[in-house]
Amino acid sequence: MLPERITIAIISPFEDDSVHINSTLRNAGITVHSIWSKNEEDCLDALRDNKLHLIFLRTKNFSAADEKIVDEIKAIQKYIPVIMIHEEVNQKTLTICLQMGAHDLVSMEYPDRLTILTCRELGSYLKARELLELRKSIGNYEEQLQVLKSESTLPAIVLMDGIIVDANKPAISLLSPDPHNDLHSSPILDYVNPAEQVILRGALKAARQGNFKQDQIAIKILNAEKEPVRMTCLIEPYNFDDEDCIRMCLKEIPVAQIVSGDSIQLDPLTKIYHRKQFLNIAQETLKEPLDTGIRAMLYLKIDDFKSLQERVGILHVDVALECFAKAIKETVSKGDIYARFGGNTFSILTQKGSEADVLSWAKHFQNHLKEHKCEINGKTIALSCSIGIAVWQQESDNISDLIQRAKDASVEVRKTGLGKIKIDKHYEQTVMKSKAFDLEWVSRIKQALLQNRFQLFQFPISSLRMTSKNMIDVYIRMLDEEQNVILPNVFMPTAERNNLSKSLDRWVVGASIKYCQQYPDAKLFVRLSRQSLQDEELLPWAKSIISKHNIQNDNLVFEAVEKDIFDLEKSGVSLQKRFKEFRREGFGLAIEHFGKHPSHITLLDEYEIDYLKIDSTLIQGLTENRDRQKIVKALCKMANKKQIATIAEHVETADTMAVLYQLGADYMQGKFTLEPEVVLESD
């Protein structure tokens, strides 16, 4: 059985070949996305990204160059079908084709044969892939057995309603000073660090109801000496005495997991990357395309380091550097790159949803650092730091510029006092707002609109409550003249300043409608710009387009950013009437980045909405911050009373997911659950 949509590459100097193959396959009922290229390079790039199902190669005379292309293709993916295109198909040409390593030969004169060959080769290729996966699974069987054997020596606890009903010897040895105490009837929370009990409560509650999508969390367990030990906790359903229970397997997380071969890459004192290795890895990371959000460089400098040396002595100040590095390791997100940059300076390259998220993390780190007391030479020391931040500019930055801007921001902020944070704004306030910059990008945006060079990019929204709605956040991405991706944070500010965002919003709405026509159970969240929120023609236009595509109005949820609502109200524009009109027509409504404005609660009384997207600044550090937990819980409770579903933005860890479940959130989105992907290409 063929997949719903196949991706093919057509290597040919003639665009007519691409048009003919596309129309032939589509007429046969095959949904196809094609990449046409005059040479093999674009095809090979797509092949390396594992995006192709089949390749067509136009040959003029079965040359050595054609055979080389086939060899290059097979070197990347051995089993990918390659079908050659030639005017003459006979025994002689077919034999030459097969000798060159291709799978078959077609002529454009026989469309039925082209369709049959495509289906045959695709079927064989998909079966070959399944067989390879099966062999891989069988090959891993021995390794899985070894893992299971090793798990039997790990501390394991069986729980019923949070009470220990069974524990193995390693668990008893870990948790109890008395080897004869079997831990039976003890609450598991008695053995968990109080600050992290909410994480385990949420995970256990979700696991009991079958809603826990990640089987592992990281928490601090109190050992027999009541010392907190950082451990991974594997949670799974379990049957004990014919009762449904939960089993927990515990494994200690080493302070520094260092492979001896990598030790040369690490700073010997702090056991994190040193400057040179950080620069190499960061430089390679910046070359990778950014799916969504922003990248930022943080330049952290321990405050008043000279005074610290005088207080604890120069021989003991290294302990402060170790403490600082440990605090970084405890707070960074998966995928962040961090290093000791030199002396008392550290650097972090991170990816977040927005500048506000980066700023929120920086504040969270400073608070964590205050609580992270260092014992140095018999003295208890509380560290603080100043942080300079620079947001990576895709179009112009290199690693050197990025670090320099972060460093400059750090120098500037230290002039105003200790423990401060500053985001570098030089680029945004000069280059990005210059007339020349806008002039260039207005022209590029208009050309892209004329040539339909855009992608619809989706970020799935996952349920915490076992509902099966196919909910998706959608965004627009632009393609330049060479089909390279340009993220919205590059071109959208110019579009908003020059009255073009309304046109881009309509492209997204139109593309979303086409997507819903193909997937009628989908519910797509479309963010509207300030221009579109004030556009009186948007609603009748959307209704008109939908009526032609046979989908329901409630397939679309229109989003407004909390700040935009307040800013428009401040300028005398109320959106209450507009919201009611959209709701009357059956469209869904949502408020995004909710919780940042001091008067955000008033919106729940003034606007009838269906979804509330809790801002990521409240989600950052949620597992440790009791105040934020109280705020999120109160928001979820108020929203629930008004029958408004809550969505947590930018969830990055299983621990956060467990806490959100405990606090009453309904949905979440973030790279922890599902990766973003392109769902609709330009025609």
What are its keywords?
alpha/beta; Alpha-Beta Plaits; 28 strands; 4 domains; 683 residues; Beta-Lactamase; eight-stranded mixed barrel; Rossmann fold
Question: Would you write up a description of this structure?
Answer:
With 683 residues, the chain is α/β, with parallel strands linked by helices. The chain has 4 domains: 134 residues, Response regulator (Rossmann fold); 103 residues, Beta-Lactamase; 156 residues, Reverse transcriptase/Diguanylate cyclase domain (Alpha-Beta Plaits, 2-Layer Sandwich); 244 residues, EAL domain (TIM Barrel, Alpha-Beta Barrel). It is 42% helix and 23% strand. It contains 25 helices and 28 strands. The strands form 5 sheets. Strands 19-20-22-23-24-25-26-27 form an 8-stranded mixed β-barrel, surrounded by 5 helices. The protein has a 6-stranded mixed β-sheet with strand order 11-13-14-12-17-18, with helices on both faces. A 5-stranded parallel β-sheet has the order 2-1-3-4-5, sandwiched between helices. Helix 13 links the parallel strand 17 and strand 18.
What is the compact description of this entry?
This protein has 683 residues and is of the alpha/beta class. Helices cover 42% and strands 23% of the residues.
